[in-house]
Amino acid sequence: MTSVLASVKGPEIDWAAFSPLLGLFGGALIVLMVGLSSPRVIRAHGVPALTIAAFGATIGLLIWEWNEQVSLIQDALILDRLTILITLLVCVAGIASTLLAWREQAAREIAHGEFFSLLLIAAGGMVVLAASRNLVTTFVGLELLSLPLYILCASRLRSERSLESGLKYLIVGSVGSATLLYGFAMLYGATGETDYAGILTQVVKEGLMGDALFLAAIGMTIVGLAFKASLAPFHQWTPDVYEGAPTPVTAFMSVATKAAALGVIVRLFFTALLPGVDDWRPAWIAIAVISILVGNVGALGQRSLKRMLAFSSIAQAGYLLVGVVVVTELGAEAVVLYLVVYLLANLAAFAVITVRERETGSDAIGSLRGLGARSPILAGAMTLAMLSLAGIPATAGFIGKFRLIEAAADGGYTWLGIVIVVGSMISLAYYLPVVAAMWRPDTEPGVDPATGRAVLAGGAQEAEAERGGWEATLVAAVMGAAILVFGIVPQPLFELVGDVLKGFGTG
Amino acid sequence: MTIHLSIVLWLPLAFGVLALLVPRSLARWVSLLGTLLTLGYAIALVADYDTAAGGLQYVTDRTWIAELGIHYKLAVTGLNVVLLLTTAILFTAAALWAALRDEPSERAGLYALLMGLAQSGVLGAFLAQDLALFVVFFDLMLVPFYFLTLIWGMDPDKRGAAVLKLFIYTLVGSLLMLVGAIATGVLAADGGSVSFVLSDLQQHLLSNGSQQWIFLVFALAFLIKMPAFPFHGWMPDGYSQMPIAPLAVFTAILSKVAAYGFLQVAIPLFPKAAVQYQELILIFALASVLYGSVMAFTATRLRLILGYSSVAQLGFIVLGIFALNERGADGALLQSVNHALVAAPMIFVVALLAARAGGSEDLRDMGGIAKRAPAFAALFLILSFALLAMPGSANFIGELFILIGLFQAKVAMAFIAAVGVALAAVYALRLYIRSMHNRVGPQVDSREISLREALVLVPMVLVVIALSLYPQFALGRVEQAVKQSLSAATATAGKETP
């Protein structure tokens, strides 16, 4: 027996570089176990605290590995700057979502242990996805992130909306996965390789650019990834899923999934498929332009904040793609920078929505009425988030957009920069009414026009704040402050995402 | 490298933040103190400005965002020195107005903060010597007016829609301008390190093709902001809904940032395109003069009369700038200052008239207000004469210079523009006569100007008179800078028509 084992030589693993993943998956196991314990306090408060600890530990490990470039498990994964940055974003989104979910109904309904360990597993899947240098690990990462999210979307067991959301996501997500798998199979068929480096060599050696099978593979891969990143015209599931899912889950999905998807798009198309750039670039450009238009136009006239942000996230993903299609280092840097500012704005917005949803039971824009007078912190954070998403100066969003447009101009695609600002112009028509709802003096004080219910006033406000949760307010305040600070002093952001392609393609 | 400009730039915002923190009853006075200190600083800067030396003075130059090549570079130049002072005067008047009239009654701290932000934004746009920084301030100065109108606007049902329209209109221009600015920086760098500092960009002018589209984008942004016909769609609603004091500074000085932008950015950076599109821009300007004058003559709402008159006046200013000779541009800058100094008190007059006509701002409800208010009538008359460019006023000199410049450049257009001067007399006198004289309106209650009202209005009228007596104050300072701003364009034009 021992001799057989000895003859099978496992791949060497650099455990230090592998440790961030262990942090997430190990955390998931521990959280699941602790979730079984009987004292309610531990389940309701210990579990989320442990989840945050797991994310925090992972961030610590990332900082430890900051300057490493290591290829893992025979080049199936790679730890380079891009992986580290995407993991960092995912972990920050994870911490924020955990804080938002602390008092969430959904977490109680499917049990805290399950809820938060699924969150950690999804985060782990995202890291695998962003780090993968092999078609097989890419697919494993993709499923690892998708499956827990299907469940999390449906985790409000007694809400039809939530169940519908989960089911819809499952069906559409599976179609996306299947398409992607087809694409990968064809890619393997065309090149005979599964790892990115091998594919690259084969494509160049065999001169596969323009080859029918290779083109079909690229096409299927793009469609599959566009499904996952919710890019138009493959976005139809997004508004329903975002609206139905519990708000903390929506917050996590809108930010972390997008970061992971953009990470894998950058890695796959900047390495393995780079020689076919003339084949895939027009497709991505078309998807970017369509996403910007569809997302921005679709968001107009939405009453539900979550649906509005769903469409806005489609448009924002379109902006992000502009950084991909120029295929320059500046472009990659702009993508990651924009992911950071997008994360800040979206988390701030979802934190405010979470609070208001708990207070009024609705996520309609009207639920924000009069917030400016009653809770300036929440209203300020939401205002900054909206202005940042629209790209107004003195917010981080302006810096992000500036960099993206600069990358577009630098790559010879100034017209895509114009598409971005045209999208931003349309977006003002739906971001600003949200701001207006908060700050406009209430015409009919006493009655909430959204729900028709009497607004709690005076003494009831204490209770309200209790129900809304200070954790969510904290998230909103921190993210809002970050939007403003990075809008005025963006230097740290640039230092963070500088050299994003450092170690890219080593191993 | 001095810190003076940073102080003058951020002082209003700092006092705005302070006003938010102090007890509510003090907020307006803190805000006023901030504007007064800024005014004092601005006076000192203007007094100390060395006209003979010209060029950039009090330069503050630090790297703001190294990766983007954006510098925090501020300077006083001949172009902005007088506008800087004008901005400080107008915001002081607005703060004084708010303090003396206890406006607004609610959330005074937030109001003070927003006005402070607005002033810092405008000052920043004037002082910026970096293209990206200019764009940042150009966008930023609009944001507070969104909130000011939203929270304290006139009609609760209409102000949301009106201000949304204003914001989208003007941001359409400035977002396109953002792309233009970034493209300018990237193309000028030509693979090297990107810099948006204006003097660097002037060293590497773009190719003719790039200049053309980028110039058009900038021109569009400026024409919308002014507003010029036919880009004025946001103006009637926006003007109707904005509260009085913010409207006074908005109509007076924000429009001038756009005019200044042509001289500071568009013409020096894209001289070939400026020459090429000279006639196109002149046609827009001429249309603005005629359309604005005719509309001002037919409108009955006081704010709209002033709004359309400002379309016409801005049209004149653009005519002067795009005569592309020194005389015209000198006149345009003088006229920018003149119009700013007249337009703001005129808006306050509108509020005073409305208070005497039962709250209505409609000309048809007025008449006979002068009856028991001779001092008020005198002040209003002086302002009206200035608005219609009566000989003896600085406005007359401004318009004269503009017309002389235009005659040298395009004779036919100058003849048409001269009609506009006559029309201005028609609408300004109509405004005065219909409100102050004629039959007494049904709701009219003629009252003399109160001490508090006079405290705002009299100093502003004195400033107008002072500038009329000594227009050289402005002209002397701008001449050299204007020459420099136009040099590349005139050189291009000279080459084409030897």
UniProtKB/TrEMBL annotation, chain A:
Residue ranges occupied by any NADH:quinone oxidoreductase/Mrp antiporter transmembrane domain in the UniProt entry: 132-427
GO molecular function terms listed in the Swiss-Prot or TrEMBL record: NADH dehydrogenase (ubiquinone) activity
Keyword Signal recorded: no
Pfam family, one: Proton_antipo_M
Keyword Membrane included in the entry's annotation: yes
Keywords from the named record: Membrane, Transmembrane, Transmembrane helix
Subcellular localization: Membrane
TM spans (from-to): 15-34, 46-64, 84-102, 114-132, 138-157, 169-188, 208-227, 283-301, 308-328, 334-355, 376-400, 412-432, 474-494
Family annotation (InterPro entries): NADH-Q_OxRdtase_suN/2, ND/Mrp_TM
An individual GO BP term: ATP synthesis coupled electron transport
One cellular component (GO) term of this entry: membrane
Bilayer disposition of the protein: Multi-pass membrane protein
HAMAP family: NDH1_NuoN_1
Listed NCBIfam families: NDH_I_N
Xref: PANTHER family: NADH DEHYDROGENASE
Official protein name in the record: Unannotated protein
Organism: freshwater metagenome
Automatic annotation (TrEMBL), chain B:
Regions crossing the membrane: 74-98, 110-128, 134-154, 166-189, 213-232, 244-263, 275-297, 304-324, 336-355, 376-406, 412-433, 454-473
Record keywords, A-Z: Membrane, Transmembrane, Transmembrane helix
Stretches assigned to the NADH:quinone oxidoreductase/Mrp antiporter transmembrane domain: 128-419
Signal peptide: none
Cellular component GO terms, alphabetical: membrane
Keyword Acyltransferase applies: no
Keyword Ion transport among record annotations: no
Record membrane topology: Multi-pass membrane protein
One annotated GO molecular function: NADH dehydrogenase activity
Subcellular location: Membrane
GO biological process: ATP synthesis coupled electron transport; electron transport coupled proton transport
InterPro entries assigned to the protein according to its UniProt record, in alphabetical order: NADH_Q_OxRdtase_chainM/4, NADH_UbQ_OxRdtase, ND/Mrp_TM
Family statement drawn from the similarity comment of this UniProt entry: Belongs to the complex I subunit 4 family.
Name of the protein this chain belongs to: Unannotated protein
